[in-house]
Write a structure and sequence with these properties.
The chain is α/β, with parallel strands linked by helices. It has helices at residues 24-34, 37-41, 83-86, 103-116, 174-180, 208-217, 344-353, 361-372, 377-383, 391-402, 411-418, 420-432, 436-440, 448-473, and strands spanning 15-20, 44-49, 123-124, 129-135, 140-145, 150-153, 155-158, 165-166, 183-185, 201-204, 225-228, 247-250, 253-256, 262-264, 269-270, 275-278, 282-283, 293-294, 308-309, 314-315, 317-318, 322-323, 333-334. The strands form 7 sheets. Strands 3-2-1-7-23 form a 5-stranded parallel β-sheet. The longest helix is centred in the C-terminal third of the chain and has 26 residues, at 448-473. It starts with 14 loop residues before the first strand and ends with a helix.
């Protein structure tokens, strides 16, 4: 293929684009960019670097070795969204897939996505990006690889994910517990059988992974699993289950004592603790970008003069994608995949379509200050990528508008998003009853309408069950 020419007939070098990572985010970026006419004509050249031997990112399993492990994937993990709302808009899950697929099904789906769109030709496996330096004079990225090579790129897409570097609570005594092995981060957790020798286990965390681990451990240990929960919940429609013989909620741990006891926020003490599993999340981390400033940025206005990584958010970014301040020009790098409490796969494709680097970040700061009732920069950093219930759909509409693409959210997608917790709880009940296979028989053969009807059927069953429970409880 001959290189394109400028209006004066001179040959031009193609624009070189480097994608870091080949998980769901990186694959979506490759898929969308590969379809661009600039790639088809040879004006853009794509390459993705993936440190592992396969696509999939966190969905591709690995033993819990390394510090930290390459994936936090535990054996019982399923999606926390129905796959109808989680899937890439361009590629559906196969018929009769369980409504909330397990990790193996998601991994197979990502492999099929990569094969269907012929994306593997762009991926260089077993190659890690160790450093990416922007040279303002040359207007180029110098990307150093684990092979020892250094290559030049015009644009970098940072798709390395943000479930790698564990986040630890700042509690007195915890470091000693971690060093002794009495406490571990959930990044190393795989299945409850590994901890059958322990009597008293505490799981720390307020999100679904903590609850999954509590479910896993229930009945494995002779004593009830203790669930140390935070004072504030951010998941709409989510509440912790009631205490049972195998599960009991306790307050946040404020101190880890040397005698094997923990002091809780309500002043009580739990003694003879054998193990604490910290399902306390992960830091946003870009170890290959040394030019980013670490720490919590000052509140705007004015915008800070540098691009900050607070480990909770990256600021300031236009459209949650492009840097508005130095050292990187907005036309040189993008950070997709940072917002959470979104349906990730659709957002990944939408972000890959967005090219316009402009957004009113001051207005968002003021909105969060009002909603969170704080002007603390750290608290605002923590809330920055935490979208409100319907905000993901507004964000996707903006991305489509920037890309010049029409977009309208289907009613069913909003409905199932708002009822995702109800759907997940009811589907888990259906699976535990052994009826899931019957519910799934033939579903998907006629396209998305089958899955829409299945989700509504699950919702109806849950609502009918709750109505019956309410009538029973109100009987004299």
């Amino acid at each position: 293929m001959s290189r394109p020419t400028d209006p004066f007939g001179e040959r031009q070098e193609p624009k070189r684009i480097c994608v870091i990572g080949a998980g769901a985010n990186g694959l979506a970026t490759l898929k969308v960019l590969a379809e661009a006419p600039q790639v088809q004509s040879g004006e853009w050249v794509l390459v993705a670097y993936e440190e592992r031997e396969n696509v999939g990112g966190i969905w591709y399993p690995s033993p819990p070795t390394g510090n930290p492990p390459v994936t936090p994937l535990y054996d019982s993990l399923t999606t926390n969204l129905p796959h109808l709302t989680m899937a890439f808009p361009s590629f559906a899950f196969p018929p009769e897939t369980p409504l909330f697929p397990n990790a193996a099904a998601v991994q197979k789906y990502l492999e099929d996505y990569a094969a269907h769109f012929d994306l593997l030709r762009y991926v260089r496996f077993r190659t890690r990006v160790d450093m990416a330096l922007w040279d303002a004079d040359d207007k180029v990225w110098y990307v150093t690889l684990s092979t020892g090579e250094t290559r030049e790129y015009d644009f970098v897409v940072v798709s390395n994910g943000h479930y790698r570097k564990p986040r630890y609570p700042n509690a007195p005594g915890l470091k000693s517990w971690l060093n002794s092995g009495r406490a571990i981060h959930a990044a190393w957790y795989r299945n409850p059988c590994e901890y059958i020798k322990f009597k008293k286990v505490i799981v720390v965390g307020g999100a679904l992974s903590a609850l999954d681990i509590c479910w896993d451990m229930g009945g494995v240990t002779p004593l009830p699993v203790l669930h140390s929960i935070p004072p504030t919940l951010y998941l709409t429609g989510f509440s912790f289950p009631p205490d049972t013989p195998n599960y009991r909620k306790v307050a946040r741990i404020e101190e880890y004592r040397d005698d094997g006891a923990v002091v809780l926020a309500d002043g009580t003490t739990e003694s003879d603790v054998d193990l604490v599993i910290l399902a306390t999340g992960y830091e946003i981390s870009f170890p290959f970008l040394p030019q980013m400033k670490q720490g919590v940025p000052p509140l705007p206005p004015p915008l800070p003069g540098q691009l900050y990584n607070s480990t909770y958010h990256v600021f300031p970014l236009a459209h949650h994608l492009f840097p508005l301040q130095g050292p990187f020009p907005p036309t040189s790098i993008a950070f997709p995949g940072l917002p959470y409490r979104v349906a990730p796969f659709p957002v990944f494709e939408d972000q890959a379509r967005a090219i316009a680097p402009a957004v009113d970040v001051v207005a968002r700061t003021q909105l969060i200050m009002q909603e969170e009732e704080t002007d603390d920069p750290l608290l605002i950093a923590k809330a920055w990528f935490r979208f409100a219930t319907l905000e993901p759909f507004e964000y996707r509409a903006k991305l489509h508008a920037f890309a010049g693409k029409p977009y309208s959210t289907p009613d069913w997608e909003v409905e199932f998003w708002e009822k995702k917790v109800l759907l997940r709880v009811e589907w888990k009940s259906i699976e535990e009853s052994g009826q899931a296979e019957e519910w799934l028989r033939g579903v998907g053969a006629n396209g998305p309408e089958d899955w829409i009807e299945l989700c509504r059927k699950v919702i109806r069953q849950s609502e009918e069950r709750n109505e019956e429970k309410t009538r029973f409880e109100t009987l004299p």
